[in-house]
Amino acid sequence: MPFSRSESRQLFRLAIPVIISQVGAMTMGIVDSIIVGHFSSLELAGVAAGNSIFWMIVMIGFGLLHGMDPIVAGAHGSGHRADADRCLGSALKMGFIFSLIFTPIIYIISKNLWITGAPPDVIRAAEPFLRTLGWSLWPLMIYGAFARYWQGFEIAFPFTLTVILANLVNWVGNLAFVTGRWGFDAYGAQGAAFATALCRVFTLMAAIGISIYYWRRRTDRPWALLWTLATQSDRAMDRKLFRLGLPASMQILLEVFAFSFTTIMVTRLGAQTLATHHIVLNIASFAFMFPVGLSSAIAVRVAFHNGRGDPASAFNAGRLGIVFAFMFMSFSALVLFIFPRLLLGFFTEDPEIIRIASSIIFLCALFQVFDGVQVAAAGALRGLGDTQTALYTNLIAHYGIGLPIGLSLCFLFGKGLMGLWIGLALGLSFTAIFNTIKWQQKKRGLLLVNGAAV
């Protein structure tokens, strides 16, 4: 099947608001880093250490919700909306239970950060930040379930608007609680956590309002529908969502842990090096939000066509998404090559941090393309209900190749931060290669089974 303009339009119609939402979510962290970074480099190091732990836990939960993509979008494609509703009910319960388990765990970790080997001054900044941020886990998880449900029906713009408004709330909250504007006390890193927690409650309330608005089109009792979905027992759907979500969760955990573990190792190199690593990671993560959003859209479009019994269109949607991810991240790599100091200047005025970061930011540019392709291919596979391949490829690429090389270069060969980033780049590169090979194998399987011309 040739490249379809119609499919490209459909893909981008969904992908653009999802990408903006992803970028908006990332922007909250960047605003935190910018305001805290200008307040104190030491407090920024505390934000870096706390965020690395918090997001490692969050991504486990978000990975479980990834199982919603093939279920909800597939139900949308087949016309079986009741299955999508059941999936949302299971996701809401899963997110709530996950939060009940992990919020106390975050608190315990915050009280025992000495285990990471971080310097005492970094621990003093990170402990209140992480402890406060932990209370934002439950609204974040429940919001994620609602957003993924409506995304499966290709309704994403209201959530984009929600994230944009949340960024305004976060910016004002940071100015108030981090720097002490308008008569508030200056809490530094902990103030950023206060602002973030308020934003996540706001986004959850907005998600509930959006859901009630759309449900009113099919029932005059939308609140009763929400209560039923959140409380009814549906073990069959619970098992199905967990079976699909667990490999996706483990895959994301492996990838996030590779970066978080690297950040934890960087704490041993001092607060200034940790702040440098955090800034460069923020820049790389910001660019990564574009293919992450595109990956979600790819999963939805692939699952939609698969649910309709149209494997040729499913593969075409996946192929288009991978190509678009390659093109965008190539552009992103070019920007990083040309304007490194300009980008670093948004985060800090510390000349030593800028000097160190300038020496490693080119590695971000080198792995941008691979990073985009690997997450796009993982989204395409997820749309077909394959959440296991990405798990295995991340395990091999990061833990069999990337981390061992990066740690060896850093601590055995004295390459410091540069060595760790070389390892991260290698891990992402091999993940992209393995995921793409598997997608091509899926293509051949579709051809053999269906005899379709794709």
For the largest beta-sheet, the strand count, sense and barrel status come to: none
Average pLDDT across residues?
82
Structural class comes to mainly alpha
Which percent range fits the helix content? over 70%
Oligomer: single chain
Topology pattern, helix = H, strand = E: HHHHHHHHHHHHHHHH
Beta-strand portion reads under 5%
Low-confidence stretches: none
* Count of discrete alpha- or pi-helical segments spanning 4 or more residues: 16
The number of domains is 1
End-to-end separation in angstroms reads: 4 Å
**What is the C-alpha radius of gyration, as a whole number of Å?**
21 Å
Could you tell me the number of beta strands?
0
Describe the 3D structure.
The chain is an all-alpha fold. The longest helix has 37 residues, at 271-307. The chain has one domain (5-450). Helix 2 packs parallel to helix 11 and helix 8 packs across helix 9. It is 84% helix and 0% strand. The protein is globular. The model has no long low-confidence stretch (mean pLDDT 82). It contains 16 helices and no strands. It has helices at residues 5-39, 41-65, 68-78, 81-110, 120-133, 137-152, 157-177, 189-215, 222-231, 235-266, 271-307, 311-338, 340-344, 351-383, 389-412, 416-450.
